Amino acid sequence: MSISGKIQAAPSGSRGFDADTVISTTVAQQFASQGYAFCIRYLSLGAGQDEGDLSSGEASDILASGLALMAVQHVEDPGWSPTQSAGQTHGQNAAANATSIELPPGMNLWCDLEGIAQNTSAQDVTNYCSAWYSAVSAAGYVPGLYVGANVVLSGQQLYDLPFQHYWQSCSEVPAIPERGYQMVQTLVPNPVNGIGIDSDVTQTDLLGGQALWLVSSV
Q1: Boundaries of each Rv2525c-like glycoside hydrolase-like domain copy (predicted)?
Q2: Residues 150-169 pLDDT 10s
């Protein structure tokens, strides 16, 4: 069973936020009243959703407040070493955790790529990302890639990955040739509505691609 909602392509110029804090109905309504259109919350890295990460109830509250929803998986601590095996495990966990909280197939789940150990080979990063993509895609979700600091890969190498949805972090990161980004993140230094957030704005990429979010069907 899935949360009652529908998948939509995110209109260009929509303003939203990502947060590593549970969003209450009251806070979600505050953001919606201030012109925010969407929220991005976290999936756990391990098997099963941890306390403080997105739950089915929180997802329903966010949608009922008038915000669209997407989900991003946590990343390992800085200095981690990606492998194909880890990519498969993390991707399977992302999909299983999304399913466990009733997120419907067809929406974007984002892989947070950042903080990779120095001297990691580009091939190891590519193998990790490709395995993550395959695991999430096999479950019916649409994989997206958040490009943070220290990803090792060049813009061309990022473009050559199987992903068709890219999210630009607030760090200095490579441009994605031919395609570009579908979301751009901006650092927000102070709390908003009592919680820490980063701001995100959607855009249509150079190939016409858009982020895919979940909205209330009511």
Answers
A1: 29-168
A2: 999 999 999 999 999 999 99
Long-range contacts of 188-191 (CB under 8 A, 24+ apart): 188/17
What domain range is 116 assigned to? Answer: 6-215
C-alpha closest to that of 70 among 217, 215, 172: 215
Q: What does the pLDDT look like over 96-121, one tens digit per residue?
A: 999 999 999 999 999 999 999 999 99
Spatial separation of the C-alpha atoms in residues 96 and 102, rounded to whole Å: 10
Q: Which two tokens stand for residue 40?
A: 């991005």
Which structure tokens are listed for 20? 């590593």
In one letter, which amino acid is 137?
S
The number of domains in the chain is 1
* Structure token digits, residue 182: 């579908």
The CATH number of the domain where 208 resides is what? 3.20.20.80
**CB 14 within 8 Å of CB 2:** no
Tokens for 195?
């919680």
**What's the DSSP call for residue 125?**
H
